Amino acid sequence: MANRLTQIATRTGDDGTTGLGDNTRVPKHHLRVAAMGDVDELNSHIGLLLCETLPPAVRELLVDVQHQLFNLGGELSMPGYTLLKDDALLQLDAALAEHNAALPRLAEFILPAGNRAASQAHVCRTVARRAERAVVALGAADAVNDAPRRYLNRLSDLLFVLARVLNRMDGGDDVYWKSERLARQQQQDADDA
Questions:
Q1: Partners of 42 in the beta sheet?
Q2: Which residue in 71, 72, 105, 106 is deepest, having the highest Cβ count within 10 Å?
Q3: C-alpha of 82 from chain center
Q4: Model's pTM, two decimal places?
């Protein structure tokens, strides 16, 4: 197989355009380029999360997610082409079911906080949501397969769940929002006891 990248600084983008995988050129502000950039940023943030101490199964899952995000970005860069397979979404669904089953129900909204790994998972979650919005915007203007949108939606859910899992490493917990409703409920529970 030939090496695809023989030169990084080509200067072909100096005019404000970039090449897609199908050899067409589009402006760098094109919705497709924005979606590809958000997916690339998400993949980079997951790479940063992988620098943390993680349970081996979570690490393995996130490494595979990085490969799937590369496929997703490739699919976005080649209009009409399919790289993201159905089993990628099934993997996320299975991981969501597995990790959700081990977590307590949420009593209230949680803050994107806790230990560093969990906080980075929350950053990944928010970037995944932005990437999803970019893919939806692209889909409103141009043909896009359903798989990228569905994958990003499910991945952001999984990253939320993984943040909760990571906060429980070493005996930690979620960081709950101090809402007035929760405070009243806790007071009512204490009064009833």
A1: none
A2: 72
A3: 19
A4: 0.85
